[in-house]
C-alpha cells in the first residue's frame, strides 16, 4: 500500500473545499474552546482551523480509494 504524503492530502483537501465553494484559507470553527492571552488577561474563545483542514479525513479516504483502483 502506498503511503500518502501530507502534501497530496492537503492538495486534495483544498480542492474539495473549493468545490464546496469555500475559501481553503478561510477560518472555520472547530467546536472547541481555547484560552488565549491578550495582555495580562486570559480570554476563552472558539478555536479555528483553515477550512481545508476540515476536509483532510475525506481527502485521505478519497486518495486511498483512488490508489486501490489504480494498482
Architecture overview:
This protein is an alpha+beta fold and 71 residues long. The chain has one domain. The chain is 39% helix and 31% strand. It has 2 helices and 2 strands. Strands 1-2 form a two-stranded antiparallel ribbon. Helix 1 crosses helix 2. The mean pLDDT is 92.
Could you give the topology of this structure?
Layout lengths: L5 H14 L7 E12 L2 E10 L5 H14 L2
Antiparallel strand pairs: 1-2
Helix pairs in contact: 1-2
Record field, number of beta strands: 2
The low-pLDDT segments are none
Global geometry? elongated
**H/E topology pattern:** HEEH
- The helix/strand class is alpha+beta
Percentage beta strand: 25-35%
* Gap from first CA to last CA: 9 Å
Total count of domains: 1
Number of helices: 2
Strand order of the largest sheet: 1-2
What is the average per-residue confidence, as pLDDT, rounded to a whole number? 92
Radius of gyration: 16 Å
